[in-house]
Amino acid sequence: MSWKKSYRSIYYQGAPEPDDMDLKPSETALLVIDVQNTYLERADRSTLSGADLVHYDAWTPFHDRMHNQVIPRTASLLADCRNAGVECVFARIATHTLDGRERSLSQKLPGWNNLLLPKHANPSQLVPELQPVGDEVCVLKTTDSALTGTNLRLILQNMGIRNVICCGIFTDQCISSTVRSLADESFGVIVVEDCCAAGSDELHHKELEIMNMIYCHVMSSNDLKTMMKI
User: Fold this and answer.
1) Which is it for the CA torsion 7, 173, 90, 179, positive or negative?
2) How far is residue 218's CA from residue 88's CA, in Å, rounded to a whole number?
3) 163-169 and 138-141 as β-strands: parallel, antiparallel, unpaired?
4) How far, in Å, are 1, 102, 152, 188 from residue 185 at the CA level?
5) Do the Cβ atoms of 124 and 92 come closer than 8 Å?
6) How far apart are CA 227 and CA 21, in angstroms?
7) In three state form, how does the secondary structure of the chain look?
8) pLDDT tens-digit readout, 95-139
9) Domains and CATH numbers, the chain
10) Percent of the chain with pLDDT over 90
């Protein structure tokens, strides 16, 4: 199905198909969000049992998607965007302090999202395949949104960026928060479906349906490359 018809929520059933976006390279940025070592590290399955083994297996589809699809396709998209003159920008969750005392409340609450990732530590680094090149910008954040917790809005504005292409993790958390912030600031936003992942495919696809056509346009990396002619 065409990206112009897919991921339609009840709000947009029967709505006209969107036009192709005019993504001039000088006005477009590719933003890769939070693809960091901490999310790709795994224990040896043979050493696990009980609840730990159940948890490991529950996350296996996410890791398969990341290694087999999201990371290689994002790397390909980065290469094509660089060749086309599209600005490539990165965001990662990282604290300036060792104890993370400047973190937002959502990253201090107990549970899965309780993150302490000092900026120089290995877990906070972007995965090797998706590293900035040269003077490409990477912002550090202790919020879900890459926009509200950093000076990224000002950076994009100063570089003349009007459209932002979003990739990374997690679709229903930091991607979603960033997309909404960008939309509120009147950027044109694209989310590349096969370059994102959530903890489960169900959460991934539902969040794309929620965001599509109001906060962003959702499309595949192939659809995007075709539209941009890259």
Assistant:
1) positive
2) 19
3) unpaired
4) 30, 25, 12, 9
5) yes
6) 8
7) CCCCCCCCCHHHCCCCCCCCCCCCHHHEEEEEECCEHHHHCCCCHHHCCHHHHHHHHHHHHHHHHHHHHHHHHHHHHHHHHHHHCCEEEEEEECECCCCCCCCCHHHCCCCCCCCCCECCCHHHCECHHHCCCCCCCEEEECCCCCCCCCCHHHHHHHCCCCEEEEEEECHHHHHHHHHHHHHHCCCEEEEEEEEEECCCHHHHHHHHHHHECCCEEEECHHHHHHHHCC
8) 999 999 999 998 888 888 888 999 999 999 999 999 999 999 999
9) 10-228 (3.40.50.850)
10) 93
Q: Which residues have a Cβ under 8 Å from the Cβ of 177 and sit 6 or more positions away?
A: 143, 144, 145, 148
CB neighbourhood size of 170 (10 A): 22
The pair of three-digit structure tokens given for residue 63, joined into one six-digit string: 């890791």
| Selection from 143, 52, 31, 55 nearest residue 94 by Cα | 143
pTM assigned to the model: 0.97
| Amino acid (1-letter code) at residue 9 | S
In tens, the pLDDT along 11-61 reads 999 999 999 999 999 999 999 999 999 999 999 999 999 999 999 999 999
| Structure token pair of residue 103 | 């973190």
